[in-house]
């Protein structure tokens, strides 16, 4: 028998929600089986950052190309500056992991050191980044596929949605299963990029330029100087390669014990691999005097120049396509954990704090998939529609996190805290400049949507928090309530005929209440009137010891007459607790349940909407072999 109150009854703590995941060394072996090792964490949480090497260097080249060949010479210096920022971020997030082992990244840092409002801005920026990462990664991967097979271009939206469903299904099986599934694609991609860099360093010139042949150059002409603004734009554009660096810090509870130590190793390994690949690709761009061309990616030209137009070239392209499509997995690893922390703090519905058996925040995973699917349909599967929105959110989170860590060092003041604080302050300066430059240069390209969405999401967080606060005050959460007392109990049982279900319902009702009333709704039509009279005759013969009350309804409604009778009982018996017990059958087979008339649901909805009565729904299970 399931019992539901007629009005909402949850606030403060999520009903049935578990405590935050244990990240210590005493994690149970059963729970650890569904958590990540350092290597699995690298596969599950680094795909976004790893895949960004496919478009990070290209973003730098496309900006510097406006200054012609002279501007291209600054590719490596800009990349080195980004690599330096990467080192700062990795060092910072390594400390974040140690200080905040329950996850949350910039949200957790800002909440402790910068206040609730700053933490909500950080959380909103991360949510936007994670959702956009899914859409950008899927569309970029499908774009690589349709470039190889142009006949699929017209079906790109459906292909995007298919990839999204596949990645979502893998993540619903658990974060460990998703990590195992993505280990091989990650290894192939990283191995092919590193091999391409090593082979390219031993080349005196490009082996092949077949991929760029026949394509128009995007290189500007006539420029002899490179201004500071252009370098800032190139730096900000290239910083798109840093998206995903924060994912490990956000998902620390997903690692096996000792979770913080494993997450730190994963963060360092991610930073080292990403830095080597970015610098290596930039060295090759200068070594081969590469020029950006329309319709061919920079990575494809580098693979062509290093390996030649052969099988190795297609391996790089295929690995890039697969990893870009699967890079959405970073969001599936980080966002549900962040949403669970927000739910625990009453800024999101408590349902996002619940976990499934495989340590999956299932509601967060499903919500992420649905919103990303809407973006995919809205963009028509076009990456260029989404990319201008991509990096702003994560840079806001980076900046807030860095500022928060400066406050952290100032408050804790461990040995060498000045150096650490200076490092974080320098990182905050760099990422803050990136936020301003990216927003200003891409405002008309769609960045205005992020500027509008950030405060709206923060306002939504605040509204949810106020709602939980109001409910908590009404329920007097945190106070010792009055001693429970016994009150007179009236139980109302809606019936429509005599059956074994009616007998069980009245038996249960008499065990629950001091007084039981059976009610039946009668309509004025001759057929209904005749059936009601027959029921009354049978009731008199049966003599169940319970009075049957007729409720008339001219509108042939069912729920409203019962709700009206319950309200009348509440008025005439103000000191009594009124309970409505609704008997329902539950066939064993699902298709048989679809044949039910849903009378119980109609009555329950009316009682819940119009009264404060307790609702009990009695399930009478019908076995599969019943005749």
Q: What topology emerges from the helices and strands here?
A:
Layout: E1 2-4, H1 29-32, H2 38-45, H3 47-51, H4 56-64, H5 68-72, H6 75-99, H7 106-113, H8 116-148, H9 156-172, H10 175-201, H11 228-238, H12 247-250, H13 259-287, H14 298-307, H15 311-326, H16 329-344, H17 362-379, H18 383-386, H19 390-412, H20 417-441, H21 443-475, E2 489-494, H22 500-512, E3 515-522, H23 526-542, E4 547-552, H24 559-572, E5 577-587, H25 590-593, H26 599-610, E6 614-622
Parallel strand pairs: 2-3, 2-5, 3-4, 5-6
Antiparallel strand pairs: 1-6
Summarize the structure in words.
Strand 3 (515-522), helix 23 and strand 4 form a beta-alpha-beta unit. The protein has helices spanning 29-32, 38-45, 47-51, 56-64, 68-72, 75-99, 106-113, 116-148, 156-172, 175-201, 228-238, 247-250, 259-287, 298-307, 311-326, 329-344, 362-379, 383-386, 390-412, 417-441, 443-475, 500-512, 526-542, 559-572, 590-593, 599-610, and strands at 2-4, 489-494, 515-522, 547-552, 577-587, 614-622. The chain contains 26 helices and six strands. The two termini are 24 Å apart. With 627 residues, it is of the alpha/beta class. The protein is elongated, with a radius of gyration of 31 Å.
């Amino acid at each position: 028998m399931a019992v539901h109150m007629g009005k909402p009854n949850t606030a403060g703590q999520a009903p049935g929600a578990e405590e935050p995941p244990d990240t210590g060394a005493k994690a149970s072996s059963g729970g650890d089986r569904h958590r990540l090792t350092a290597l699995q964490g690298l596969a599950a949480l680094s795909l976004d950052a790893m895949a960004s090497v496919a478009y990070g260097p290209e973003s730098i080249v496309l900006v510097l190309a406006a200054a012609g060949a002279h501007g291209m010479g600054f590719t490596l210096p800009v990349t080195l500056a980004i690599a330096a920022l990467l080192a700062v971020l990795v060092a910072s997030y390594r400390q974040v992991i140690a200080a905040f082992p329950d996850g949350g990244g910039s949200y957790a840092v800002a909440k402790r050191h910068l206040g609730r409002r700053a933490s909500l801005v950080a959380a909103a920026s991360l949510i936007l980044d994670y959702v956009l990462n899914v859409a950008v990664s899927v569309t970029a991967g499908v774009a690589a596929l349709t470039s190889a097979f142009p006949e699929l271009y017209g079906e790109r939206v459906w292909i995007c949605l298919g990839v999204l469903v596949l990645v979502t299904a893998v993540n619903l099986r658990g974060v460990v299963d998703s990590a195992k599934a993505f280990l091989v694609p990650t290894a192939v991609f990283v191995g092919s990029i590193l091999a391409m860099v090593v082979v390219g360093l031993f080349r005196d010139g490009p082996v092949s330029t077949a991929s760029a042949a026949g394509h128009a150059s995007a290189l500007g002409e006539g420029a002899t100087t490179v201004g500071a603004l252009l370098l800032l734009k190139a730096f900000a554009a290239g910083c798109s390669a840093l998206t995903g660096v924060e994912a490990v810090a956000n998902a620390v509870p997903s690692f096996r014990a000792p979770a913080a130590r494993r997450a730190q190793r994963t963060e360092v390994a991610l930073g080292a691999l990403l830095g080597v690949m970015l610098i290596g690709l930039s060295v090759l761009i200068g070594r081969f005097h590469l020029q950006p061309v329309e319709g061919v990616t920079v990575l494809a030209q580098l693979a062509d120049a290093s390996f030649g137009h052969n099988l190795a070239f297609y391996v790089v392209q295929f690995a890039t396509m697969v990893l870009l499509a699967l890079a959405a997995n970073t969001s599936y690893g980080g966002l549900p954990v962040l949403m669970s922390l927000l739910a625990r703090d009453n800024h999101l519905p408590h349902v996002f704090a619940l976990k499934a058996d495989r340590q999956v925040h299932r509601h967060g995973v499903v919500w992420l998939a649905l919103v990303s699917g809407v973006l995919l349909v809205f963009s028509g599967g076009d990456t260029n529609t989404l990319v201008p929105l991509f990096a702003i959110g994560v840079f806001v989170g980076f900046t807030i996190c860095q500022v928060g860590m400066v406050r952290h060092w100032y408050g804790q003041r461990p040995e060498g805290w000045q150096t650490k604080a200076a490092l974080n302050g320098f990182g905050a300066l760099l990422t803050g400049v990136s936020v301003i430059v990216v927003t200003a240069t891409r405002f008309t390209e769609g960045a205005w949507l992020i500027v509008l969405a950030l405060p709206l999401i923060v306002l939504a967080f605040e509204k949810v928090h106020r709602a939980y606060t109001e409910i908590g005050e009404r329920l007097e959460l945190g106070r010792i309530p009055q001693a429970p007392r016994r009150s007179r109990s009236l139980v109302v049982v809606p019936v429509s005929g005599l059956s074994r279900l009616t007998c069980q319902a009245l038996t249960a009702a008499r065990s629950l209440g001091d007084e039981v009333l059976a009610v039946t709704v009668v309509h004025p039509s001759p057929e209904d009137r005749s059936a009601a009279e027959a029921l009354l005759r049978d009731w008199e013969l049966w003599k169940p010891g319970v009075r049957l009350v007729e409720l008339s309804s001219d509108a042939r409604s069912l729920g409203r007459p019962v709700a009206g009778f319950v309200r009348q009982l509440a008025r005439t018996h103000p000191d009594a607790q009124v309970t409505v017990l609704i008997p329902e059958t539950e066939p064993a087979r699902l298709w048989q349940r679809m044949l039910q008339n849903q009378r119980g649901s109609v009555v329950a909805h009316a009682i819940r909407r119009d009264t404060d009565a307790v609702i009990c729904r009695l399930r009478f299970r019908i076995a599969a072999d019943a005749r």
